[in-house]
Write a structure and sequence with these properties.
Kinesin; Four Helix Bundle (Hemerythrin (Met), subunit A); ATP binding; myosin; nucleotide-binding; Myosin_TH1
Length: about 1100
């Protein structure tokens, strides 16, 4: 908001009346008109003192942004326009600064926006409290609990697309700094489902809401469950239970007659039952029997009766309601476990209660009765706490307290909840007494006990046996609530109050293999059978309301009354009849009257003086003394009657709203006068400032003009002087020029005459020289002609002589050619075939190489492809080329290896040379990489002691089976190979059992079969050989033998002997035992077994 638009009071720029306490005149019509006027201008919040009225706009408004949060943060309640953030901030600051536990009660009918209001309150508190990683996590969990509870506790109804079907009360716990520590959610079950049988669970048409993305909402709920702390298996279990509840609605029954004439019910489609049993893990026959029979236990007797179709449907609906209700209670408890405060320090608490408002429908039943009872209790505590707050403020401000007349609805609460003669007590008594119990007997009992009560009406009143009130139907009774008279249909009161779940169904649920469902029905455990009748719905509800009232009594209340403007859920529509109905049953006019019973308006002295100080000359513009004295002077100056106001310790109290509006009118008029004065002073200042600026500008311009004129005159004088000087200099220059020109012409005349003379002399000499030259040229031409004639004659002679020599040479060449051809013909017949063969062979080989260039295979060493040879005589060459190419591409492939890869392949090559075609186990080891350190001793803390005892590099660390010398049984040992030693350690403790230097290892023996047994032979007489050789079994035999061979060769420079035989000797202490490998069928599959036959033979059976 811009600086000039910031409001300092809700009275500024007020649309209608922001606080209903100030409404004049006060009646139902003006109340509704004021709400409509503010609603039409998008002002959805209105105050009744400290109570906030919220009208659902059914559209998004830009009044909940982070900027709005900062605007209302730490501001006085009446300082800005009415807003839910103002009430939230007031409650939070009272909790944080005054150490008072707070409670925010949100009431209204379905679709009035209660759930959204509770979310706005929680989001505001989360925004203004502290920051930090832990605090942010707690806030996120508290906020994300709402989507989870809405997903499972809300439903689409005729009145609302997202109607809460439960009463939620959340206690948010704070530390001494005002930072949230956690929370506790209480599910008071204030809302009961209306008619459970009307819901078609799996009908997509009934569950579809326009503009709602179900997939996105489902992802939001799953994410919220994860943030709150639900494990994946818990979320899956919850969804399975929901699916089972939905499937229950599809079960239908059909009647069947038994032989004894009794009616029983059977399930029409057992596929639906089968799907439910698969989801819940219940045996199908157990659940089917529970839907068909009911077992009644009394002391030591059990009686089993069949259920007819109506009773079966009742059992199905009761099971669905109980299953979903208990699931929701489990969800609340599970969320409480996650969001509860972890510390045990003293905590401050802010409670948020979202409940249903008063209900008056055409057909009102048991549900409306108990909800209206709850609202009676809330109205009672509201009146008590409001009057108590008023009285405390009057006493605190030293204002005389006057008694306020108001309607005390305690008599109505007593009519409903009295333990002896209350309606709920009589309903429980009817439900529990033996004999025939119907809704009519319950109504008769009400007529007997409550007929004389002034707030109870029925067809039979005042104990008369005649019809006294013909406006009432026969099966109804009427209660005059604080919000008006409500007519209740007595039909269904007894059944809904019982709300029984047959014990057979509880026991069937307890037998489920689904862990969550089993935990929801502990009473189904046969070992814990309780024959005591469960409490009725009315008694449970009464206890819940008592607990809620006790909780609210300990906190400072704050109220938000939500109103639904229309039934169409559309924006910009205000149905006055609907709003009037809600105003009546919410008791809003009663709230205003209670608030206005004493003083309608109160304000601290400082803001009051600051707002109205311009109305008095003595307080304007600044008051030097105390604020209270300034207010007293101000009110005396305005001549306001003394009975219209009172002075408290820190506030001024105004009795009548007309007085406040008079002050506002005077302030508005005074502000207009002050604005006029400010404008006058400003215009005078502006004109004087403009005049002084013009005067200063004129002086500056004049000074600059005078300077410019003098400069111009100086320039003109200067230019005139320069012109005169230039004329004089020009005249003098021309005079000198004429003299110089005369002297120059005289000198030029002499030069011209001399030049003409010299020219004449030169031309004469030229003519003489030309004559001599012509004579010499004639002689030269004649001589040249003579020499040319002579040369031509000599050339002709030489050409003739050359032609003769050329003819001789040609004749000689032809002769030599004839001679050569004759000689060549003699040799051609003998050597022509060889020459042609060599030429043809050369061409074939050349073509072969050119074709091979285009048919070369890939560079992969494992590629076996090679072009076929075109001719048999090229077979050796073809094979040699193939061998050379393979060697070349292998070299190219090896050049790509890193040092580590070269080492691996070297080990693999060594293993191939040692075991290929010798050991049957070798082919299976080719594709397995040699890792060596299989145990990762450096990373495993279990082997820290073993790691510290070994200082050398570990080449192999593997668990092997050491064969016992006595009986052939195996014991697990850690086999360690280092650069110099071979070590054996205990697998559990890591303690080293044996240490053998590699120089003492002489030989390794193994069989040729597909087993992992091998013997390590030690040097006789060495210290390590005192107990004899070692016999092991390992899954990595090839790798271990190869690494042992290479390490021994590297250290001792001697090759280790690898013996491969199906029989070999092993030295055990002083005895030599023969180890023999045989083929045999094993009981344990493909694992070789070792057995000691006698003292000299150890037999290994290999499959």
């Amino acid at each position: 908001m811009a600086k000039m638009e910031v409001k300092t009071s809700l009275l500024d720029n007020m649309i209608g009346v922001g606080d209903m306490v100030l409404l004049e005149p006060l009646n139902e019509e003006t109340f509704i008109n004021n709400l409509k006027k503010r609603f039409d201008h998008s002002e959805i919040y209105t105050y009744i003192g400290s109570v906030v009225i919220s009208v659902n706009p059914y559209r998004s408004l830009p009044i909940y942004s982070p900027e709005k949060v900062e605007e209302y943060r730490n501001r006085n309640f009446y300082e800005l326009s009415p807003h839910i953030f103002a009430l939230s901030d007031e409650a939070y600051r009272s909790l944080r600064d005054q150490d008072k536990d707070q409670c925010i009660l949100i009431t209204g009918e379905s679709g009035a926006g209660k759930t959204e209001a509770s979310k706005l309150v929680m989001s505001y508190v989360a925004a203004v409290c502290g920051k930090g990683a832990e605090v942010n996590q707690v806030k996120e969990q508290l906020l994300q609990s709402n989507p989870v509870l809405e997903a499972f506790g809300n439903a689409k109804t005729v009145r609302n697309d997202n109607s809460s079907r439960f009463g939620k009360y959340m206690d948010i716990e704070f530390d001494f700094k005002g930072d949230p520590l956690g929370g506790v959610i209480s599910n008071y079950k204030l809302k009961l489902e209306r008619d459970f049988s009307r819901y078609n669970y799996l009908s997509l048409d009934s569950a579809k809401v326009n503009g709602v993305d179900d997939a996105a909402n489902f992802r939001t709920v799953r994410n919220a469950m994860q943030i709150v702390g639900f494990m994946d298996h818990e979320a899956e279990s919850v969804l399975a239970v929901v699916a089972a509840v939905l499937k229950l609605g599809n079960i239908e029954f059909k009647p069947e007659s038994r032989v004894n004439g009794l009616d029983e019910s059977k399930i029409k489609d057992k596929n639906e039952l089968k799907e439910i049993c698969e989801l819940t893990g219940i045996d199908q026959s157990v659940l089917e029997r529970a839907f068909s029979f009911r077992t009644v236990e009394a002391k030591q007797e059990k009686v089993s009766t069949t259920l007819n179709v109506a009773q079966a449907y009742y059992a199905r609906d009761a099971l669905a309601k109980n299953l979903y209700s208990r699931l929701f209670s489990w969800l609340v408890n599970r969320i409480n476990e996650s969001i509860k405060a972890q510390t045990k320090v003293r905590k401050k608490v802010m409670g948020v209660l979202d409940i249903y408002g008063f209900e008056i429908f055409e057909d009102n039943s048991f549900e409306q009765f108990i909800i209206n009872y709850c609202n009676e209790k809330l109205q009672q505590i509201f009146i008590e706490l409001t009057l108590k707050e008023e009285q405390e403020e009057y006493i605190r401000e030293d204002i005389e307290w006057t008694h306020i007349d108001y309607f005390n609805n305690a008599i109505i609460c007593d009519l409903i909840e009295n333990n002896t003669n209350g309606i709920l007590a009589m309903l429980d008594e009817e439900c529990l007494r033996p004999g025939t119990v119907t809704d009519e007997t319950f109504l008769e009992k009400l007529n007997q006990v409550c007929a004389t009560h002034q707030h109870f009406e029925s067809r039979m009143s005042k104990c008369s046996r005649f019809l006294n009130d013909t406006s009432l139907p026969h099966s109804c009774f009427r209660i005059q609530h604080y919000a008006g008279k409500v007519l209740y249909q007595v039909e269904g009161f007894v059944d809904k109050n019982n709300d029984l779940l047959y014990r057979d169904l509880s026991q069937a649920m307890w037998k489920a293999s689904h862990t969550l469902i089993k935990s929801l029905f502990p009473e189904g455990n046969p070992a814990k059978i309780n024959l005591k009748r469960p409490p009725t719905a009315g008694s449970q509800f009464k206890a819940s309301v008592a607990t809620l009232m006790k909780n609210l009594q300990t906190k400072n209340p704050n109220y938000i009354r939500c109103i639904k403007p229309n039934d169409k859920k559309a924006a910009h529509i205000f149905n006055e009849a609907l709003v009037c109905h809600q105003i009546r049953y919410l008791g809003l006019l009663e709230n205003v009257r209670v608030r206005r019973a004493g003083y309608a308006f109160r304000q601290a002295y400082e803001p009051c003086l600051e707002r109205y100080k311009m109305l008095c000359k003595q307080t304007w513009p600044h008051w030097k003394g105390p604020a209270r004295s300034g207010v007293e002077v101000l009110f005396n100056e305005l001549e306001i009657p003394v009975e219209e106001y009172s002075f408290g310790r820190s506030k001024i109290f105004i009795r009548n709203p007309r007085t406040l509006f008079k002050l506002e009118d005077l302030r508005k008029q005074r502000l207009e006068d002050l604005a006029t004065l400010i404008q006058k002073i400003y215009r005078g200042w502006k004109c004087r400032t403009h005049f002084l600026l013009m005067k200063k500008s004129q002086i500056v311009i004049a000074a600059w003009f005078r300077r410019f004129a003098q400069q111009k005159r100086y320039q003109q004088t200067k230019s005139s002087a320069l012109v005169i000087q230039s004329y004089i200099r020009g005249w003098k220059a021309r005079k000198i020029l004429r003299e110089l020109k005369h002297q120059k012409r005289c000198k030029e005349a002499v030069t011209t005459i001399a030049a003409y003379w010299h020219g004449t002399q030169a031309r004469r000499e030229l003519r003489r020289l030309k004559e001599e030259a012509r004579n010499k040229h004639a002689i030269a031409v004649i001589w040249a002609y003579w020499l040319g004639s002579k040369a031509r004659r000599e050339l002709k002679r030489l050409k003739e002589e050359a032609r003769r020599k050329h003819a001789v040479a040609v004749i000689w060449a032809y002769w030599l050619g004839l001679k050569v051809r004759r000689e060549y013909r003699k040799f051609f017949r003998a050597n022509a075939g060889k020459k042609i063969y060599e030429f043809t062979l050369q061409r074939i080989v050349q073509k072969y190489f050119l074709e091979m260039k285009n048919k070369m295979p890939s560079l992969s060493p494992i590629d076996k492809n090679w072009p076929s040879r075109p001719y048999l005589f090229l077979d050796p060459t073809h094979k040699e080329l193939k061998r050379i190419f393979h060697l070349w591409r292998c070299k190219k492939y090896r050049d790509q290896f890193t040092d580590q890869q070269k080492l691996i392949y070297e080990e693999k090559l060594e293993a191939s040379e040692l075991f290929k075609d010798k050991k049957a186990l070798y082919p299976s080891s080719v594709g397995q990489p040699f890792q060596g350190a299989y145990l990762e001793i450096n990373k495993n803390p279990k082997y820290k002691k073993l790691k510290d005892a070994i200082e050398e590099k570990i080449i192999i660390a593997e668990v092997v089976n050491k064969i016992n010398r006595a009986n052939g049984k195996s014991t697990s040992r850690i086999f360690l190979l280092t650069n110099n030693n071979l070590l054996l350690a205990d697998q559990k403790s890591g303690q080293i059992k044996s240490e053998v230097p590699l120089v003492d290892v002489t030989k390794v023996s193994m069989s040729s079969q597909n087993d992992g047994f091998f013997a390590v032979h030690l040097k006789e007489g060495s210290e390590a050989a005192s107990k004899g050789d070692f016999l092991f079994s390992s899954d990595h035999l090839i790798e271990m033998a190869t690494k042992l061979y290479r390490t021994t060769l590297s250290q001792t420079k001697q090759k280790l002997n690898i013996e491969i035989s199906d029989e070999f000797l092993v030295q055990f202490r002083q005895d030599k035992v023969c180890v023999k490998f045989i083929q045999g069928n094993q009981k344990n599959g493909s694992v070789p077994t070792c057995k000691r036959k006698n003292n000299r033979l150890l037999e290994v059976a290999v499959p």
